Amino acid sequence: MSQPDDFPKKKQSRTITTINRAGLRPYRLHIDIEGQQLRVKLDGHWAFRDSNSFWQRIFDECRANSLNFAVVMFQFSKKMSIQESHALAGRASEIFSGQGIQLAIVDINRCSFASPGFWARAVGNVGFSTFFQDMAEAEAWLDKKVLEFSNKES
Q1: At the topology level of CATH, where does 25-153 sit?
Q2: How high is the pLDDT of residue 111?
Q3: Pairing status of strand 27-34 against strand 13-21
């Protein structure tokens, strides 16, 4: 399977999976590995009842591939409600807190979440993730985290 044209590329990568869900609320999930990072893009009409399996899949892929860093890009067709956003962020916090995996959360179209500060409040500022509205800033933050981790390992 090839990467979607709008999926940011910067390093040699391999695709893990692409899921296209049709129906009343179609969405596309693309998971890729680039270097030491898992890269996930979710767009379309998200079915919020799937948030448990979504975050668990990301966690499982990180563990299966010995990755400690992931960039998760959201590009929803419409803004999530506060309740939907809170449920999505809360589930991420339950799965990733204390697990040693750093997430860069990116609202690519700047309208998937209610506000930029919402993510940090919803996950409780526990330090496993940072929210961005700019892909370049997210990548720079994650690259810095990877470098810090590499320096600790050596």
Answers
A1: Transcription Regulator spoIIAA (3.30.750)
A2: 77
A3: antiparallel
